[in-house]
Amino acid sequence: MNPRIIAVANQKGGVGKTTTVVNLAASLVEHGRRVLIVDLDPQGNATMGSGIAKQTLEHSVYHVLLGSADADEIRLPARQGGYDVLPSNRDLAGAEIELVQELAREQRLKSALAHMDTQYDYVLIDCPPSLNLLTLNGLVAAESVLIPMVCEYYALEGLTDLVGTLRKVRAAVNPRIEILGLLRTMFDARSNLSQQVSAQLAQHFRNKVFDTVIPRNIRLAEAPSHGLPGLIYDRNARGAQAYLSLAGELLTRLESELAQPTH
Questions:
Q1: 45 near 51, Cβ under 8 Å?
Q2: How far is 256 from 238, CA to CA, in rounded Å?
């Protein structure tokens, strides 16, 4: 069976994309699923947050996009957490310039993942915080998009831009892509503004907003400096438990049709 490929995207930085990718991956493994992370961000934070030293990489996603290495050759296991990673480092920043002259440049990641079909149940793509050619590769390869967002005033404006981009991608290159859900991250329940923006999201996007809310959590923020998902660093932390809950909700959304009784 083909894996579910999910791009985690928001052109606004600092909304918890990488935290979501790493912790959702570990949480899906906890639920018995086989998971691959694709680190499409030249900062390589998902790589480092998985305990992989980006400075010592001989090959990375950069080489996969340019066709000089296969995805199978460069993938590495996370130090802990049970998932695999297609790692990234600063080399990837040059890929965008080098790909400009190439044919089907926005299809490179999709082609690279095609032959890994049966090895994983879920592929999570950590997109960079911009709407560039790397993000476009992620959106073309994916069938759905998970959008982490902080409940602040400017977040809604950025969301409008992203929805517009998805509409263009659907019309031009990937007709199957859809929004899987909006995830409220770094949520402060004591803030009136957070509550107001959260209510607006629910009003506009209804069932596209995940019920699970990721709280602001120190232990979750500390985990990447140890190269670990929050679930491994401190399983009992509120943030880690929230991502476990998110994984359960995501699986219910995506796999509920498989659970229907057959006659």
A1: no
A2: 26
Query: What digits encode the pLDDT tens for the residues 85-122?
Result: 999 999 999 888 888 887 788 999 999 999 776 789 99
In angstroms, the CA 218 to CA 154 distance is 24
Q: What is the DSSP letter of 181?
A: E
pLDDT at 127 over 50: yes
Q: Which one, of 61, 44, 62, 63, lies nearest residue 53 by Cα?
A: 44
Tell me whether residue 103 is exposed, middle or buried, using C-beta atoms within 10 angstroms of its C-beta: 0 to 12, 13 to 18, 19 or more: exposed
**Residue 202's pLDDT is what?**
83
Residues in contact with 256: Cβ distance below 8 Å, sequence separation at least 6, in sequence order: none
Rounded CA Rg of the chain: 17
Distance between CA atoms of 207 and 179, rounded to whole angstroms? 11
Cβ neighbourhood burial of 226 (10 Å; 0-12, 13-18, 19+): middle
What's the whole-model pTM score?
Answer: 0.94
Structure-token pair, residue 145: 């998009």
Torsion, Cα 91 95 97 103, to 10 degrees, reads 160
**263 has pLDDT over 60:** no
